[in-house]
Amino acid sequence: MLLSFSVFLAQAMPILVLPKPGGEAAVGTRIFHFTDFTRQESYPNVPKNDRELMVRVWYPAKPQSGKGELLFPEDPAQFRTYKENFSGVFKVPAFILDYWKYTRGYSHLNAELLPASAPSPVVLISHGMGTGSVLHVSQAENLASHGFIVAAIDHTYSTAATLFPDGRITGFETKTPADDFYTYAKQVGAVWAADIQFVLSEMEQLNQDPNSSLKGMMDVTHTGIMGHSFGGATSFNATYSNDKIKAGIDMDGTLYDLEDKGPMPKPFMFLNSDQRSMLSAAIKNNEVPGSIRAQLVKEQRMMDSVGAHNGQVIHIRGTDHFNFTDLQFYTPMLKYTGMTGSINGYRGADIVNSYVLDFFTKHLKKKGGQLLDNGPHPQYPEVEFQKATLAAE
């Protein structure tokens, strides 16, 4: 049945078309290879080398002719490794991902930056566990088209595949055990937090380097972060504890490190799927182990606190976990796998992008906020502003 369904999906998956960026600026992109010589890899079964990261940056650019860049490697051997790695994570036959080779974004590689009267705020993106920055291209391009500089981190060994300049491709080596998720998640989260701190430092250096095309283009004093799933929870931790980050967004990510944390001291927004919006129901479900429910209580209380103090907890009806990534554009049939919800993928992306843009415009550019400040909007009836669900202790 799985094989038959996979063949059906292969026929139902046309060439992926991302939504066009909604801003006035064209978008350029550059790829950076950073090495942190102060850290060595700490994951089991991987070489204990210095920590290496690939980071893709999107920015407002001068208009370019021609098609945007391909999202996946053109080299046949590299592409084969990429699709096999992703097929292993998603547990589908590799051949149904073959059409990924044709997928393009709207940004142009190494395009000349658009001159600006003032430096642009910076937004970091942290992907979900086992996926990668390639699933957040449309979000990055949309923000860049509205005047942000966006840096998406591939957390090495926590992606399905990361391609380095010398042709090496690392795979997914960060498998969090279901029976001890919170303990192991904190260990992995510490690595990701260090990645974020390191990339912030590298971006600051690029902003000062006279040989860098990004010199003086970034307003690093107004930096935000957003993430999906594990990356969303990591974005919460980074916003909470990193002084350089001024605002953050968690897209459907389970919080894994709430010990000794008081109220979130900075602007923050949760974007939740149907399943995650029912956290309070799971807390009351006696079939859920008590230790897990205790963690969920802490998580719900934190969301309640954010919603009550300079933040938002937003439920987008009809969404499931991967509606907060570009995976929702791969095929309308994806909802039947349970990875996305009933909402049309492009509609879901429009809602997410609209609220993400409004949030960062308000808190990093100090203007906007129309969607967040005025409650439910008639243009987005799928959006529900969630209120506190647990009584204060």
Give the SSE map.
Blueprint (H helix, E strand, L loop, with lengths): L1 H11 L13 E15 L9 E12 L14 H15 L17 E2 L10 E7 L10 H9 L3 E6 L7 E2 L5 E2 L10 H28 L9 E11 L1 H12 L3 E7 L16 E5 L6 H5 L6 H19 L2 E6 L28 H20 L5 H4 L9 E3 L8
Parallel strand pairs: 1-3, 4-5, 4-8, 8-9, 9-10, 10-11
Antiparallel strand pairs: 1-2, 2-5, 6-7, 11-12
Number of helices: 9
Distance between the termini: 50 Å
Structural class: alpha/beta
Structural domains: how many: 1
CATH level-two architecture: 3-Layer(aba) Sandwich
What is the gyration radius calculated from CA atoms? Answer: 20 Å
Count the beta strands.
12
Description:
The chain has helices spanning 2-12, 76-90, 137-145, 181-208, 230-241, 279-283, 290-308, 345-364, 370-373; strands spanning 26-40, 50-61, 108-109, 120-126, 149-154, 162-163, 169-170, 218-228, 245-251, 268-272, 311-316, 383-385. The strands form two sheets. It has a ten-stranded mixed sheet with strand order 3-1-2-5-4-8-9-10-11-12, sandwiched between helices. A two-stranded antiparallel ribbon has the order 6-7. Strand 6 (162-163) and strand 7 (169-170) form a beta hairpin. With 393 residues, it is of the alpha/beta class. The protein is globular, with a radius of gyration of 20 Å. The protein has one domain (2-385): 3-Layer(aba) Sandwich (Rossmann fold), CATH 3.40.50.1820. The protein contains nine helices and twelve strands. The protein starts with a helix and ends in an 8-residue tail after the last strand. 31% of the residues lie in helices and 20% in strands. Helix 4 crosses helix 5. The longest helix is centred in the middle third of the chain and has 28 residues, at 181-208.
